[in-house]
Write a structure and sequence with these properties.
mainly alpha
């Protein structure tokens, strides 16, 4: 099995690796929004409403993209409001699989807020979805420069490195990530793929077993351990893991009935 196949369902746009960061950001944004609401006058609220209405019409395809600039020049829209609009529009296009359009808006967001790690992180995600891995890697490196222990950036960066078969680079990234998210099975799975790429099969088996300890019902972990044991000519152990795969698949099928 290729590493691309093994990683194809590792879409982690909202995955649990950076769930804690998102929770903290939501709390922080909630406090900031409360402070902003106290400072805004009724006129400013009206202008923000008009700008959001304009954004909605844009998303519905009824207005031209350049109209955003017209509104921005006509009204004194805050940078924060403009950033929200750019992110919302990019999300709209990304959800439709229109990554090139999403990327154009995310680039504008990074220009507007060059010190905001989330802007570069979202741009990296979009670039990764469009398979522009080199540029995506550059965005995640910028995120890490701004937030040295950013779990999501390291996770996605190591994902790309595995896809590109840069296993030494992936090992470096995962060595930073493991202590930050030691209870995440996906990280040990990826570390297992990395050790396999480095032809260190014993270590690959060891960390893949750790992944199973953390998530014993994940079929692909048992399946890959089976393949790793085949490579070691340990066919007895391989048979046990493949048997477990069949058991889990049968349970899954029964649950779907």
């Amino acid at each position: 099995m290729s590493h691309d196949t093994l990683l194809e369902d590792q879409d982690i746009m909202e995955n649990d690796v950076d769930q804690n960061e998102k929770s903290k950001k939501r709390k922080k944004m909630g406090k900031e929004n409360n402070e902003d609401s106290k400072l805004q006058s009724s006129d400013q609220i009206t202008l923000s409403y008009m700008y959001y209405l304009h954004s909605f019409l844009l998303l519905c395809g009824r207005l031209l993209t350049k109209s955003i600039e017209w509104y921005n020049s006509l009204f004194e829209i805050s940078p924060r409001d403009r950033s929200k609009i750019l992110r919302n529009i990019s999300t709209h296009y990304a959800n439709k699989g229109l990554h090139d359009q999403a990327i154009s808006y995310l680039k504008e967001w990074t220009k507007l807020e060059p010190s905001n790690p989330d802007a570069f992180y979202q741009l990296g995600i979009a670039l990764m979805a469009s398979e522009n891995y080199k540029s995506a890697m550059g965005m995640f490196n910028k995120v890490i420069k701004l937030v040295p222990n950013h779990k999501g950036a390291y996770f996605r960066k190591s994902n790309i490195q595995i896809r590109l078969k840069d296993f030494n680079g992936a090992k470096e990234s995962l060595d930073v990530l493991v202590p930050l998210a030691s209870d995440n099975a996906k990280i040990y799975y990826m570390l297992g793929l990395t050790y396999e790429g480095l032809k260190e099969i014993d270590k690959a088996i060891e960390v893949m077993q750790k992944a199973i300890e953390l998530d014993p019902d994940e079929i692909r972990y048992h399946q890959h351990l089976g393949f790793l044991n085949v490579r070691k000519d340990d066919h007895k152990s391989a048979a046990q893991y493949f048997t477990k795969v069949m058991e889990l698949e049968r349970e899954r099928d029964e649950d779907m009935l």
